[in-house]
Write a structure and sequence with these properties.
- Two copies of one chain form a homodimer.
- Chain A is an alpha/beta fold.
- The first copy, chain A, is globular and about 90 Å long.
- In chain A, the strands form five sheets. Chain A has an eight-stranded mixed sheet. A six-stranded mixed sheet of chain A has the order 8-9-10-11-12-18.
- Chain A contains 15 helices and 25 strands.
- Helix content of chain A is 32%, strand content 25%.
- Chains A and B meet through α10, α12, α13, β23 and β24 of A and α10, α12, α13, β23 and β24 of B.
- Chains A, B: It is found in: Cytoplasm.
- Chains A, B: One of its GO terms (cellular component) is cytoplasm.
- Chains A, B: Its cofactor is Ca(2+); Zn(2+).
Chain lengths: 549, 549
């Protein structure tokens, strides 16, 4: 019996990880992270709960990667800490993984294996065959998984529009060939199911970029995702044509371009590259800077350029900043703030709202239908999306002629079973999101987040009172301290009055009352809450520190 | 000399307030608020700094309102607390202001005056004439301001596409007539300058809404902004045509529809309205619910429906939820979370990404050019936008033939002066943003926000040590308390180890050392910071409480 179980990626864009099992053998497609949502205060990254895999121990045979984006490879270091499972991927994907494992101090023992598009990969009863797919990172693949009950095709993250480089195009022929063999199930990328029509081609984006870079009277500064090697190659080619030098700015760009150059995926004409320290040695209109920070990340080189605090690059009138990436939901205000700052400095900014300088890496609706038609599966399983994406993709499949009963809506933890008699879904296994904050993996949960939210809203007030253990007399305090509550000038005033509120309680609670200290504590908390509500309508967290000495 | 000074609205969408002065007389167009940005933790609303107006005292003669959106009227209660200036507006706008002042306990003394589109309004040397504009709230106006040095036209928030109700269309004839008289300057709405073409008409939106509501097999639940009376009337008309009852759900919808009904701006056929408590008394396909919460506000009735915690309405398969409003940047994740929840319940959701069930109230580029052509001003001043919007609008004006030297880029606080010889910009007056948190107006500034951010990131650790004043011996502690730092299970562990770190310091600092307590405090803070960084890579706020008794 074949089992397909997503551990993540079917309730979110992120956390992509799907377990494939037959008999005793299991492997996973991808092991991705997610960036925290707004309410996850202080959280660095989010991981899928991988306990299901850990419990399989030696029966868990491999992780097979489709491509090198964080939502597909970001959880690998956390998995490898606990089990040294082999990782399979294309050269560029493994290049990024290698870098990641090096930073985590896990590279020495890691078992990384390069996959080839011309060879089958055997994992126990499975035989995997990989197909090139065009995506916003180079070296992406989809795959056909031959199993004893039939062949399953996974689209990977794909689009069908033309890449700037023909060898990067989706291998339509191979998908069609598999379609002709009879396919049990297709798992397909749902990200852009809300978008009608087709993605524009990378070539069209290149043409727009060329026009903008060519006519920039000053520096052209292009911000994009570091792994978008095709776009970087296009910009290098444009720079060469228009006699501009190229500067790679920032650590992640340096890392990814180095990996791509080592693999010959990125080719730089001799002498075109320049160090950022030399930027003022050539005329402004002979420079292209390639950098990251296009999501408005506040510590990025781009954000520091925008606010004038970048020591290497001071932007000025004539410079053109090109944000060649999507405005990811949640980042829009950070991005537009950077745009406004650049305008303020007299620089010009080109961004997706006003020009086609970006294209998504994920297929639009027409391409999604084409994938279904090429693969022509018996069963269809939409993956890689939030609930609404999967549901829209399921509807699209129905419109495209797949019988409703053969469309399976997956869920994180839902076990989809195939055997000779058909398909069944059963058993939600335990899944979830594991929050990483600093070195803590999983210790920050809803109670800590709730406390952080309360602290963030109105700050904190600490009340210290020291009693004489024998007499019950107050020997110190009430002393009040606050953070994030009110401004210094007002603070003295409000905290002094709050002190009077507490003194009244201390007077009223007789020294011989049983449990006196805890009575005072309870009354004080409630009185302070009321007092702050009445005077300033805020609800700081009140921490009473009642000490007997 | 005529002076035009924006106090807000030229560096943000929000805080719209522009002071117009001649000689001793000043008045303001609008007095709006802004909703807090993500980093303004715990802040309720943001106001423009109105000190410039307060200082004018009796010379400040009026606030004239263009329409009733919060970014144009929201600061009025805060202004009226300090000075009882007369407020002028159209009937619906004043209806909303009246409600607002009532809630603030300021209505009794307020001086509210209804303006008419057929009469001039005199304010000292100024003569104001109002023109109907079509916007996403009823009863919006633009205005012509006759001054001793020429006539200034303010567009208000406008679009030129057709309303569903002809009497709500922008009064193009009157704008053209003024254009023919010779206009000194045009101030025009820049919000949608990034959008090509024209807004679609309210009628087109109505047709789409009708199709969706008519074919919903269950309840149709439409979420929109409460003040969008035209859209509400359209939905009522659709409900009547398709034999559905109408339920107004939520306080703000009840308020705005009541104001509109009192003014006869909203007409309900007899018997069409139903109370929400009766919702289960009629078949699902005979109900339309009109509600708010379309921005994903977590406490809204809609959000509670989505999570199944709304006591009045349980959505179920067959119900169609229609989000008839824009995804405002910053709210996207909250909105999509609600959408996913509804899908999870089997309900269907229609939203702007997948259907034209919403249109902006602000003109697109072609309409913006038409406004310039109609009014044909000598000077052009783009308003109502962030920096990038104003700069794009200035460029559009240049393309439309207005000489570059006659295009003035305004700024919050920049005084634009007109006299017989021309225009000058000088003197930035002091402006800024005033943050409102609870009853505190202006006391939360960057230092409090910084503290809240630190608290939100990694929580807080309070360390209490009580020393004997004479001997220096520790009589209590070190006692450690934390909030929002680590999960309970881990907490004991980490805080116990941290206690040992402090005990070591206490041992090392000799009892006779001068300033012993403050030395301990300093060493302890630094040691704890290092310890937490090393063990868990977090930086909680450490509050030492060192007491001598």
């Amino acid at each position: 019996m074949l089992k397909i179980t997503p551990l993540g990626g079917t309730r979110e864009i992120g956390l992509n990880m799907t377990v494939i099992e037959y008999g005793d053998t299991a492997f996973a497609i991808d092991a991705g992270l997610m960036f925290p949502e707004g309410y996850m205060l202080g959280v660095d990254i989010v991981l899928p709960d991988m306990d299901y895999i850990r419990e399989k121990g030696k029966n868990f045979a491999a992780v097979v990667l489709t491509h090198g984006h964080e939502d597909h490879i970001g959880a690998i270091p956390y998995l490898l800490r606990d089990m040294n499972v082999p990782i399979f991927g294309t050269p560029f994907t493994l290049g990024l993984v290698r870098h990641k494992l090096e930073e985590a101090g896990l590279l020495a023992n890691a078992r990384l294996h390069t996959i080839s598009l011309d060879e089958f990969l055997r994992i126990g009863p499975f035989e995997l065959d990989f197909m090139r797919v065009n995506h916003s990172v180079v070296d992406g693949v989809g795959m056909a998984i031959k199993t004893p009950v039939g062949t399953v095709v996974h689209s990977g993250d794909f689009k069908l529009s033309q890449s700037a480089f023909p060898w990067m195009n989706t291998d339509v022929d191979k998908f069609v060939w598999y379609g002709g063999q009879g396919i049990l199930a297709l798992l397909s990328d749902s990200t852009n199911v809300e978008k009608d029509g087709r993605t524009i081609s990378d070539m069209a984006v290149g043409e727009t970029l060329e026009k903008i870079i060519a006519k920039s009277p000053g520096r052209a500064i292009v911000a994009l995702f570091a792994s978008n090697i095709v776009r970087i190659q296009q910009i290098v080619d444009i720079a060469e044509k228009h006699n501009r030098k190229v500067i790679f700015d920032g650590r992640s760009i340096e890392t990814s371009t180095q990996i791509a150059r080592d693999l010959d995926y990125l080719r730089l004409p001799d002498g075109i590259e320049m160090n950022i320290r030399q930027i003022d040695e050539v005329p402004d209109d002979e420079v292209v800077v390639i950098t990251t920070g296009s999501q408005g990340e506040p510590m990025s080189s781009l954000a520091r350029m925008a606010t004038g605090s970048n020591k290497m690059i001071k932007t000025r009138p004539g410079d053109t900043i090109i944000l060649s990436s999507k405005f990811i939901p949640g980042n829009e205000r950070a991005i537009t703030s950077i745009i406004n700052h650049f305008y303020e400095q007299g620089a010009d900014v080109v961004y997706e709202k006003i020009s086609d300088i970006h294209v998504s890496g994920h297929a639009f609706r027409e391409e999604l239908i084409e994938m279904m038609q090429m693969v022509n599966p018996t069963y269809f399983i939409p993956v890689h999306g939030e609930r609404r994406h999967l549901i829209h993709h399921a509807r699209l499949a129905k419109q495209a002629g797949i019988p409703e009963e053969n469309i399976i809506l997956p869920d994180n933890g839902l076990v989809i079973e195939f055997d000779e008699t058909g398909v069944r879904t059963k058993d939600h296994i335990t899944t979830g999101r594991v929050l990483v904050d600093g070195k803590g993996v999983g210790d920050v949960g809803s109670s800590v987040l709730r406390e952080r939210k309360e602290l963030a809203e109105d700050g904190i007030v600490v009340v210290v009172i020291v009693f004489d253990e024998e007499t019950g007399i107050v020997v110190h305090g009430p002393e009040l301290l606050s953070r994030g509550f009110v401004f210094q000038n007002l603070k003295g005033h409000i905290l002094e009055d709050a002190q009077c509120v507490i003194l009244e309680i201390l007077e009223e609670v007789r020294p011989d009352m049983p449990d006196r200290v805890s009575v005072i504590e309870t009354q004080m908390k409630s009185a302070l809450r009321q007092y702050f509500k009445f005077t300033i309508k805020r609800r700081p967290v009140v921490i009473p520190v009642m000490i007997e000495v």
